[in-house]
Design brief:
- Two copies of one chain form a homodimer.
- By secondary structure, chain A is α/β, with parallel strands linked by helices.
- An eight-stranded parallel sheet of chain A has the order 1-2-3-4-5-6-7-8.
- In chain A, β3, α4 and β4 form a beta-alpha-beta unit.
- The radius of gyration of chain A is 20 Å and the shape is globular.
- The interface between A and B is large, with 80 and 78 residues.
Chain lengths: 369, 369
């Protein structure tokens, strides 16, 4: 056995899918380094020229993705006009949105101000990214909707950015990453949750990010695979923190989407939390319900990655636990681990559940008519 | 709802269990601070008097367990002659071994040299703990078997300690913790695996430990519950590291037991690893089989904690995935989260599986006639 990174079908060979779908994880990129500059105050042009950026640094650098997949993306996804994968709307339309019948595509920009240590710069870059999403993407293709990116370590400025976008139908969610300076339930992040609830936007929590700590409690692993699968453990701790700090008790209308970290771990995490909670409720008296109840009511989950058990029944049992109404289809386009829409669900799913999974859950969550 | 820490039944009200059982996680304690001194060279008496100990330090200190459960243990487990819970053989016999019909009790000493930064001291303390296990426990009650504790950060000295105990039937396994200076698959720990395979002892990997890093990739959580449930995430990263570094390829006869971190997360971790491995095998070409195959063949799992799903079927499906022949019963006596033997398995388990779970799997794994 000597499996290599699989080649991806090129645009021409895409099989397509007949029913309209929502793709809840699309990553748009800048075509050039300077593409963001028109959206940034002049002050920051000079600052970036003089100081560059200071990010939370660590051994992550240089190895977030296999090198053989440049820009973490499909090698067939380079736009013909140049620029990195995901940087051309017309090529995204031709390669992905049109052939795959994407009726709703949620943009999750990743290289934003999140993770920058200068919080004023972080906020300026995030705000610029939000303007850029409108001008380059959502105003040009009504199928695409943006995510409000925020300087997440500065809850107050992040909340201001969210309120600035209130009522703007170019955006359907706020975007956070799961690996931060502190676990996501901590109070420094509460202004974000307060603002998101107030303006009625769900919060997507996408895997990745970096806050200075290694991805394991025992330091640095050796392999990309460990880093990648480790993001599921990050997401587990983030979700436990959100539940146990009482975020969903404090913000009862908040909806969150766990993006790109799998969901097979959700039931066992909830079972364990419930069992411990039954005996240690007095440590978290602000919780009025069992941890599993907050998880079931407040959390949505995207596929890509979707766990792939040997037994189809195991997959269905897992989905039944989280709820067919809580699962959202996502491709992760143009990243290398993209899921082909027509191949992601095994046989044996009812038409109603397929329809909910591929489109209706997302339309309902994101308020798309 | 205002659940407090539940009181435990006292010795007199223990329900007992009719069939003989193996308890694969019993924690013996020292009755006094000085109890270990007879097993330590004089050199270390003076050293401890002058320098004390230097452990990997962090915010763990002072909060590994709820304070209301002193010594992390049942309040009804104090021996009548004084000393902390778990420090009296006669009281352990009276309260636990006799009424619960324990035919095999595996001792897992926790406050050992593991985690001390002076590796010579760590090795001396571990060796003393091993001598103490024989003299105080296993030579006095043939139902009890010890675990060889080792200075795990110094693989070479740890391997020497394991070889020193080769063939000594007082011991049935080597004991490691899951949270260390590096992930457990790293080569610094390989001499331990080599020696354990050579002398034919399985390795128990018990939750807890500390190597300087916070328990989440986003720093320190607020609650004991997060710390406790977080150990399952530590165990997941440790297991991924063991598999991906090729430990089971290099040491094909090695058997490992995951102790006190649950097992509900095992299938979804294996599914995810298999899926990523299928595409990124070239990063870990030393692996000849799918990650799930190493996990199924090389890993045993103890209960306490056993996840407690709402649906009994979900529990059974999880156990079927890991294998009824791989599950070992454990109480965690005398710790506060002790599981009462007669109550741990739900109805609906076949007699053969009950027998395997309560006794036969452990006897076979640990080589007890």
């Amino acid at each position: 056995m000597n499996v290599q990174i699989r080649e991806r079908p090129d645009a021409a060979s895409s099989t397509g899918i007949k029913t309209a779908i929502a793709d809840c994880d699309i990553h748009p990129a800048r075509a050039t380094k300077d593409e963001l500059f028109p959206y940034l105050e002049k002050r920051w042009h000079a600052h970036l020229e003089t100081f560059g950026i200071q990010a939370y640094q660590g051994m992550m650098e240089g190895r977030p993705y296999p090198k053989a997949q440049p820009n973490a993306s499909r090698r067939d996804a380079y736009p013909p006009e140049g620029g990195p994968q995901g940087s051309s709307l017309s090529f995204m339309q031709k390669q992905h949105l049109d052939p795959n019948n994407v009726a709703l595509g949620v943009l999750n920009p990743l290289a934003t101000g999140q993770g920058l240590r200068n919080q004023d710069l972080a906020g300026a870059v995030c705000s610029a990214i939000n303007d850029w999403q409108i001008e380059k993407w959502t105003s040009k293709d009504s199928r695409l909707k943006g995510s409000v990116v925020v300087a997440n370590e500065d809850g107050v400025s992040a909340a201001a950015e969210i309120r600035k976008r209130a009522g703007d139908t170019n955006f359907v969610q706020v975007l956070l990453l799961s690996r931060n300076v502190e676990p996501l339930g901590q109070r420094r992040y509460w202004p974000i949750y307060e603002a998101a609830q107030e303006v009625g936007l769900p919060i997507g929590v996408h895997a990745f990010g970096f806050g200075g700590n290694p991805i394991t409690a025992s330091g640095w692993p050796s392999h990309y695979i460990e880093e990648m699968v480790g993001h599921s453990q990050c997401q587990q701790t983030a979700l436990a923190s959100l539940v146990l700090e009482g975020v969903f008790e404090r913000f009862p209308k908040l909806k969150m989407v766990m993006v790109e970290a799998g969901f097979g771990w959700a039931p066992s995490l909830a079972w364990r939390l419930d069992k411990v909670f039954a005996r240690l409720h007095s440590e978290v008296p602000h919780l009025k319900r069992k941890p599993s109840e907050y998880i079931r009511d407040h959390i949505w989950w995207t596929t890509q990655p979707m766990e792939d058990p040997e037994s189809r029944d195991h997959l269905f049992q897992t989905i039944e636990w989280i709820g067919w109404d809580k699962l959202l289809f996502a491709t992760d386009y143009p990243h290398w681990d993209y899921d082909e829409p027509s191949r992601v669900l095994p046989a044996g799913v009812s038409d109603a559940n397929r329809q909910a999974f591929y489109l209706d859950n997302a339309k309902q969550l994101y308020g798309i008519a």
